[in-house]
Amino acid sequence: MADQSGKPPQFPYYTLKFLTIGETVGQASETSVGDEITKHQVLELHVSITSFSNKLDESFDNAFKALEWFRGIGAYELEDSGIVVVNTQPVSNRDTFINIDYERRHGFDVRLRVKSETKLNVGYIEHVSVDVGQ
Predict the structure, then answer these.
(1) Kind and range of the H or E run holding 70
(2) Among 19, 27, 70, 84, which residue's CB has the most CB atoms within a 10 Å radius?
(3) Cα three-residue angle 107-111-114, rounded to 5 degrees
(4) Running along the chain, 134 residues long, what does each successive block of 10 average in pLDDT?
(5) Torsion-angle region of residue 67: left (phi > 0), alpha (psi -120 to 50) or beta?
(6) SS3 track for 13-76
(7) Is 62 exposed, middle or buried (0-12, 13-18, 19+ CB in 10 A)?
(8) 10 Å Cβ neighbour count for 88?
(9) How far is residue 39's CA from residue 1's CA, in Å, rounded to a whole number?
(10) Distance between CA atoms of 30 and 86, rounded to whole angstroms?
(11) pLDDT at 123
């Protein structure tokens, strides 16, 4: 995960940063069985993937490999887990100048969709009393 405290790992490595989580897509639906209501909703997540290295070509190559994974076999593997790859952005340069040298970074953003299911136990109304005023 990106933006974590502590010392980063040795080069090369990747980070994942969730830019948005839970943006709703479409309309929610509800089903009820007995005293339990189940809400179904499709949620979208925007994730930023960044490859870090001290070598420019390694940073780019690793970012491109990750992008190709999301566009290829990864889309099928994620789909098996209920995650849909909606869109990927192209790899872009995200280099950072640190002191007297550059930290080489390349990355891309990916939009994913997942199904959300929330179960609520609403109970039954067993007794109602109505007072009629005079």
Answers:
(1) helix 56-71
(2) 70
(3) 135
(4) 78 95 88 90 96 93 98 97 97 84 90 94 82 78
(5) alpha
(6) EEEEEEEEEEEEEEEEEEEEECCEEEEEEEEEEEEEEEEEECCHHHHHHHHHHHHHHHHCHHHH
(7) buried
(8) 20
(9) 30
(10) 24
(11) 79
Contact 31, 40 (CB under 8 A): yes
Rounded to 5°, the CA angle 92-49-73 comes to 100
- Copy the structure tokens of residue 63: 């970012």
Q: What is the pLDDT of residue 92?
A: 95
Q: 80: which residues sit within 8 A by CB, 6+ positions away?
A: none
115 burial class (0-12, 13-18, 19+ CB within 10 angstroms)?
exposed
